[in-house]
């Protein structure tokens, strides 16, 4: 390097440093005078450009940095649903605070480790042709066009989900209130749900932790639920890790219904028709294995106990079970063990042996035939 070039480089570096310092000073001055509200216009225009939907930020914006996150808070926010959806707005809230993953943002990916909603209404919908309102591409069909959300906190709000293709329409009311019973957290999320699930009437209520751990697998989410879906009643109490993917489940579960075949809309597996049943046991999920273990109950007049296990992930689910019974009525469990029509009655009233030396005697019909 020639000696005369060194002063030139030093002057260039000093000039660049001064220009950068001026820009930083100007940004700080703008923020001091106007706050972060100047971001509203660019954010609203970017939302329309990328999604075709209107984002409206009516209140003040605040932004706080705490690497590796930045927390953006906005007052009075609405974000529209696509035109085909039943509800006009996908999200409306008196206040919204989102934690933004800064390393992801530097890679041009948007991720929210946490979202807090105050007095919010959220409506999600899936159309008959497969479009999903929560996908943010212009056609709502790109599974990658979504913002990953780790946890959601709600104080009061309404949640809705509609899926015309599955004959499902649900509405939930949620609120975060101080826990009133021993053994529960200081703040609990209480909820009630009603509507239709896969064509069946649904009513449910329960409580959970104050923060919905949608993708957070670092800590289990406590949940207590009591529901009625069609002719099936369910009670559950325990913990779920990762609410969206159900990464792990450990819950006490009680089932009651008119027939096991009514479980098909809930579990997606076909069971035989049975008499009324009631069971209680422990429900576990690890990986692709669901296990209902140490359960006991009855089917009709028969008692039943043992475990049942379903392994998913293959071409079709694989069901195995180990069942015991002290009092077994074949009329109750005949369909489960594969008894053919009429075989139960024939087992209880076998045909008499023919007399020696005489013609075979006619077989009397089974009782009730």
Summarize the topology.
Layout: H1 5-34, H2 40-51, E1 55-57, E2 61-66, E3 69-80, E4 89-101, H3 102-106, E5 112-126, E6 149-154, E7 156-163, E8 168-178, E9 187-197, E10 200-208, E11 211-212, E12 221-229, E13 232-241, E14 248-257, H4 264-267, E15 277-286, E16 289-299, E17 302-311, E18 318-324, H5 330-337, H6 343-348
Parallel strand pairs: 5-6, 5-7
Antiparallel strand pairs: 1-3, 2-3, 3-4, 4-5, 6-11, 7-8, 8-9, 9-10, 10-12, 12-13, 13-14, 14-15, 15-16, 16-17, 17-18
Structural summary, described in words:
The chain is of the alpha+beta class and 369 residues long. The protein has helices at residues 5-34, 40-51, 102-106, 264-267, 330-337, 343-348; strands spanning 55-57, 61-66, 69-80, 89-101, 112-126, 149-154, 156-163, 168-178, 187-197, 200-208, 211-212, 221-229, 232-241, 248-257, 277-286, 289-299, 302-311, 318-324. It has an 18-stranded mixed β-sheet that branches. It starts with a helix and ends in a 21-residue tail after the last helix.
């Amino acid at each position: 390097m020639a000696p005369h070039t060194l002063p030139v480089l030093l002057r260039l570096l000093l000039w660049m440093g001064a220009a950068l310092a001026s820009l930083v000073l100007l940004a700080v001055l703008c923020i001091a005078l106007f706050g972060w509200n100047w971001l509203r216009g660019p954010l609203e225009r970017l939302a329309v450009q990328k999604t075709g939907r209107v984002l409206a930020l009516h209140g003040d914006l605040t932004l706080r940095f705490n690497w590796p996150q930045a927390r953006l808070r906005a007052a009075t926010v609405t974000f529209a649903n696509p035109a085909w959806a039943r509800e006009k707005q996908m999200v409306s809230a008196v206040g919204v605070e989102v934690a933004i993953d800064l390393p992801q943002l530097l890679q041009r990916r948007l991720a929210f480790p946490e979202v807090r909603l105050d007095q919010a209404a959220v409506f999600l919908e899936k159309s008959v042709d497969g479009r999903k309102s929560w996908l943010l591409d212009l056609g709502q069909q790109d599974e990658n066009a979504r913002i990953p959300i780790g946890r959601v906190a709600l104080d009061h709000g309404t949640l809705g989900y509609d899926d015309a293709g599955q004959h499902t329409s649900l509405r939930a009311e949620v609120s975060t209130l101080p826990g009133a019973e021993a053994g529960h957290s200081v703040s609990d999320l209480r909820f009630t749900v009603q509507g239709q699930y896969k064509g069946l009437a649904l009513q449910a209520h329960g409580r959970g932790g104050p923060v919905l751990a949608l993708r957070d697998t670092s800590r289990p989410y406590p949940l207590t639920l009591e529901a009625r879906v069609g002719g099936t009643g369910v009670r559950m109490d325990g913990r779920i890790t990762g609410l969206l993917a159900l990464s792990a489940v450990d819950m006490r579960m009680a089932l009651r219904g008119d027939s096991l075949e009514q479980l098909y809309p809930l579990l997606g597996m076909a069971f035989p028709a049975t008499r009324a049943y009631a069971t209680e046991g422990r429900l576990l999920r690890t990986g692709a294995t669901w296990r209902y273990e140490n359960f006991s109950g009855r089917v009709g007049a028969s008692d039943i106990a043992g475990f049942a296990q379903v392994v998913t992930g293959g071409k079709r689910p694989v069901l195995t079970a180990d069942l015991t019974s002290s009092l077994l009525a074949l009329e109750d469990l005949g369909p489960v063990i594969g008894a053919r029509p009429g075989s139960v009655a024939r087992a209880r009233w076998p045909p008499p042996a023919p007399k020696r030396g005489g013609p075979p005697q006619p077989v009397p019909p089974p009782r009730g035939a």
